[in-house]
């Protein structure tokens, strides 16, 4: 913490120690302004992370989920969509965010972060006078179906551990391991009038394991309580993919497959932080996560051949973007 300047009084003028060469001013405005600046410098919280071994943060994350889907999910006998694949896009949902840093030396630290959003959900209902079929080749359905009622759910989990190197005062370089889990489930109930007719149940699971690199950039830091930082990450992953879809109407028609493929994930974040005390800060910002190379339920229907009970897609991508808020405690 900066020490306040010692002031000396000479006659009617007040000048900071070491400024005797400046002529005394009859007006005391200069001395008052100098005193305020000195007081702020002495009392404002100062960022001294190098002296703190631990930085422990916890808060919330609010993300919107956007996915690229082609085709439809359910169509009528004239191939008009009753349930478009865009119906599987969800709005904002909240989850937890935990961020812990262990400062090992003046230039190296370990950072661990975990965030999770569980159970994005969206419901869709529709009626038809022209039957209903699942979208895709030789897909099951019937002209007897008069209505559909569906519920779609998705979740996102992320855990990472990075080695961070302080390259200079405004740039940190990082490299580490990351795990991402993106899972989706869809249930569709087909009805004939008021009676159940058939049911579809589908699951798509993606477990990504891989390595990432990135950088943290300090945009604003004047030694005071306010800072503005950006983080940029990109990684290559192996995605363990699984899909299971089944249509039941007395008998069951099922398509199941699994595979492993290469996936990509990139992340951008902007965070503004305010140091409330010497050891407590609050931060808020924006995060964008893009994942490519996924098995998404909305992409499966156009890729499946129900006649041979085979096929599937692992080329989907999803965007997650929204707000992040955190409270961080600096510990010795």
Structure description:
With 332 residues, this protein is mainly beta. The protein folds into 2 domains: 43 residues, no CATH class; 283 residues, Lipocalin (Beta Barrel). It contains 2 helices and 18 strands. The strands form 4 sheets. The protein has a 10-stranded antiparallel beta barrel. Strand 12 and strand 13 form a beta hairpin.
Rg calculated over all Cα atoms: 29 Å
Total strand segments: 18
How many separate helices? 2
CATH class of the largest domain: Mainly Beta
Considering the chains and any ligands shown, give keywords for the structure.
332 residues, mainly beta, 2 domains, 2 helices, 18 strands, 7% helix, elongated, disordered N terminus
Which helices and strands occur, and which strands form pairs?
Blueprint: E1 7-10, E2 13-16, H1 29-43, E3 54-67, E4 72-75, E5 81-84, E6 92-103, E7 108-127, E8 132-134, E9 141-142, E10 147-166, E11 171-192, E12 195-221, E13 226-249, E14 251-275, E15 280-294, H2 297-303, E16 304-305, E17 310-311, E18 316-331
Antiparallel strand pairs: 1-2, 3-6, 3-18, 4-5, 4-8, 6-7, 7-10, 8-9, 10-11, 11-12, 12-13, 13-14, 14-15, 15-18, 16-17
């Amino acid at each position: 913490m900066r020490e306040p300047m010692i002031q000396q009084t000479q006659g009617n003028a007040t000048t900071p120690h070491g400024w005797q060469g400046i002529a005394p001013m009859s007006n005391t405005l200069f001395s008052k302004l100098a005193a305020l600046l000195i007081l702020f410098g002495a009392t404002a919280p100062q960022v001294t992370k190098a002296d703190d071994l631990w930085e422990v943060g916890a808060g919330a994350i609010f993300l919107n989920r956007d996915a690229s889907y082609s085709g439809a999910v359910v169509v009528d006998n004239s191939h008009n969509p009753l349930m478009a694949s865009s119906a599987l896009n969800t709005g904002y949902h909240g989850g937890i965010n935990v961020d812990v840093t262990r400062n090992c030396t003046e230039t190296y630290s370990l950072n661990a972060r975990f965030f999770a959003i569980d159970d994005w959900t969206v419901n869709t209902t529709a009626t038809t006078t022209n039957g209903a079929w699942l979208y895709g080749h030789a897909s099951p359905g019937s002209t007897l179906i008069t209505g559909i009622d569906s519920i779609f759910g998705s979740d996102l989990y992320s855990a990472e551990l990075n080695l961070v190197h302080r390259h200079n005062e405004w740039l940190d370089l990082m490299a580490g391991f990351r795990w991402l889990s993106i899972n989706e489930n869809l249930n569709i109930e087909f009805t004939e009038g008021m009676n159940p007719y058939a049911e579809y149940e589908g699951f798509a699971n993606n477990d990504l394991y891989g390595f990432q690199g990135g950088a943290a950039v300090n945009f604003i830091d004047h030694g005071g309580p306010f800072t503005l930082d950006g983080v940029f990450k990109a990684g290559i992953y192996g995605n363990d993919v699984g899909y299971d879809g089944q249509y039941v109407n007395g008998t069951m028609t099922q398509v199941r497959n699994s595979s492993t493929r290469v996936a990509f994930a990139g992340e951008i974040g902007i965070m503004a932080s305010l140091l409330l005390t010497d050891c407590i800060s609050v931060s808020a910002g924006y995060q964008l996560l893009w994942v490519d190379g996924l098995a998404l339920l909305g992409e499966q229907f156009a890729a499946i051949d129900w006649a041979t009970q085979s096929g599937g897609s692992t080329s989907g991508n999803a965007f997650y973007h929204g707000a992040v808020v955190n409270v961080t405690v600096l510990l010795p």
